[in-house]
Amino acid sequence: MTETGAARAASDCGSAPAVQIAELDYTYPDGSVALRQVSLMVGRGEKVAVIGANGAGKSTLLLHLNGSLRGAGTVKIFGQAVTRRNLPQIRRRVGLIFQYPDDQLFCPTVGTDVAFGPEHQGLPQEVVAERVAAALQAVGLVGFETRNPFHLSLGEKRRAALATVLAMQPDLLALDEPLSNLDPRGRRRFLALLKQMTQSMLVVTHDLELVRALCQRVYLLTAGQVVYSGPVESVLDDAELLAQNGLV
User: Fold this and answer.
1) How many Å apart are CA 153 and CA 84, to the nearest integer?
2) Three-class SS string for the chain?
3) Average pLDDT of 171-177?
4) pLDDT tens track for 91-130
5) How many CB atoms lie within 10 A of CB 21?
6) What is the pLDDT of residues 207-238, one digit of tens each?
7) What is the number of other CB atoms lying within 10 angstroms of the CB of residue 45?
8) CATH number assigned to the domain covering 3-244
């Protein structure tokens, strides 16, 4: 086992789930209530979706996984509570992928963007180079190292953003509307990448086709509350439930 693997194993609590959230509340500084008593779980290696109409609180929920937001309640990642003291360890394990890749790509080349995270972990340059090569290989962007990320297509930007996360070797991928605004070819390609990922995964989206193709279980969020959860088919085949919650 590598040193990183040993450290992760030591921080795991037995066979704790990848994500365990209990009675999470969050209110924004302006008084807007975003989350109300949200509880959910993602098993190890499981792909789970949180669906809901715009404004349901999905993105707010996602930002609690790496401590970007912290509400009242409990959030645990592989059994470790998300607290100020634990943030460095938590953020090494959670790969957060934003809805808009331009929010994640900020370096002059794709290669430097992908290298940014491992470099700031203090890894040796040869390890950083190996991580960059492996991440670009995984997303099909070999040869893009010197390309300007802002000159890429949207689909290529999404794959580059995913590579920046994969280079950190996270155990959990947290994705915000990963297929939004992609053309049909881009959707197919990015969905195929997500299907290949072995990490535990939490996807927040209102894209029901994505959920059906990728996930095993789903939580339905409305006005910041979980109103239903279960296997994907039991939720997505309930047209009345979806209509009542603004998804059809």
Assistant:
1) 37
2) CCHHHHHHHHHCCCCCCCEEEEEEEEECCCCCEEEEEEEEEECCCCEEEEECCCCCCHHHHHCCCCCCCCCEEEEEECCEECCCCCHHHHHHHEEEECCCHHHCCCCCCHHHHHHHHHHHCCCCHHHHHHHHHHHHHHHCCCCCCCCCHHHCCHHHHHHHHHHHHHCCCCCEEEEECCCCCCCHHHHHHHHHHHHHCCCEEEEEECCHHHHHHHCCEEEEEECCEEEEEEEHHHHHCCHHHHHHCCCC
3) 96
4) 999 999 999 999 999 999 999 999 999 998 889 999 999 9
5) 25
6) 999 999 999 999 999 999 999 999 999 999 99
7) 12
8) 3.40.50.300
CB 202 within 8 A of CB 172: yes
The answer to whether the beta carbons of residues 221 and 227 sit under 8 Å apart is yes
Structure-token pair, residue 149: 């990320």
Gyration radius (Cα) of the chain, Å: 18
Structure tokens belonging to residue 27: 């209110």
Q: Report the distance separating Cα 185 and Cα 130, nearest Å.
A: 29
Closest Cα partner for 216 from 200, 229, 231? 231
Domain segments of the chain as ranges? 3-244
Question: pLDDT (tens digit, 9 = 90+) per residue, 30-81?
Answer: 999 999 999 999 999 999 999 999 989 999 999 999 999 999 999 999 999 9
Q: How many residues does the chain have?
A: 248
What are the structure tokens assigned to 185, written together? 């070819």
